[in-house]
Amino acid sequence: MPLSAQDVRGRFSRFRILVVGRANAGKTTLLQKVCNTTEKPLIFDGKGNKIDADVVKSSVDRGYHDINNELVFESNLGFVFHDSCGFEAGGVDEFKEMKEFVSECASTRKLNERIHAIWYCIPMDEYHRAITAAEERFFSECDTNNVPVIAVFTKFDALSAVALGELRSTSGLTREDVFEMTPKRVEEIFAHANIWGRLCGSRYPPKDYVRLAQMDTDKTDCGLLLDCTTGALGDEALEMLLISTQQTNLELCIIYAVKRSFLSLLTLSFI
Hints:
Layout: H1 5-11, E1 15-20, H2 27-34, E2 42-44, E3 50-51, H3 53-61, E4 70-73, E5 76-83, H4 92-107, E6 117-123, H5 133-141, E7 149-154, H6 158-168, H7 175-193, H8 195-200, E8 208-211, H9 223-233, H10 236-245, H11 250-269
Parallel strand pairs: 1-5, 1-6, 6-7, 7-8
Antiparallel strand pairs: 2-3, 2-4, 4-5
Helix pairs in contact: 1-10, 6-7, 9-10
C-alpha cells in the first residue's frame, strides 16, 4: 500500500539538508529561493534554543558557522538547513567536525535529526578554481553513508559573461552571431573545465548535479534542484516528504502524483 502523507509525517517531521560551499557561493540566496522568501533565516542551536543572529554575524561573515546550528525560514518551517563550518577555508579541525557531523546525522536512529540530502555549492564565477583542495578533500574523504550529495553549480550565468567576452573579441562576428553562439560556447567552457568529470572520478562522487543561473532575480526558482534531489533520494518516504515540504514547484507535485498513480496501477496489474 502506498505511503500516505500522514505516514510520512509520522516518521519524519522536517526535511533536513546540509549545505556545503565556500563563502560567496550563493548559499543564502539559494536557500531563500527554496523557501520563497527574502528574509534572513532564524538560527537555533542543537537544543532548539534560538540564537541572536547579531551574536554570530561576525563569524558568519568570515564563512565560519557552527554546523550543529539549525537554519529555518519562517516562510517554510518544513525545511531545516545546516551550513558547513568553514572547512572550505582550509581548517583541519573544521573538516573533522564536518565529517563527524555527517557520519552521526546520516546514520542516527533519531529520524528527526537525520540529514536527508547534501547540497555542495560550487560557484561558476570562479570556474577556473571550481575544484579547490576543499572539494578534493570532501569528495575523496567524506563518506556520506548513502545520503545523496548534489553538486550545485551556482552563478552559472557567469560563464555566459565569459563566453560573450570571448566571442566579442573574435573578428568577423556580428552582434547577432555573438548572441547566437553564446549558449554553445558556454557548454564548451564548462566541458573543457571538466569539473563534473573530476568530481565523478572521486572516491565519493556526488549523485547528480544542477546548474543554477540568475538566482538573484525574481524570474528563477529552485525547481530543478528540488527535482534532482527528489530523484536522488531513493526512498519513497523521503521523496514524499520533500515533495510535500517544498511549496514553490507545483509541476514537481504533479509529476510525483502521476508517478505514484502509475506505480500503483502497475502494482495492481500484477496482483
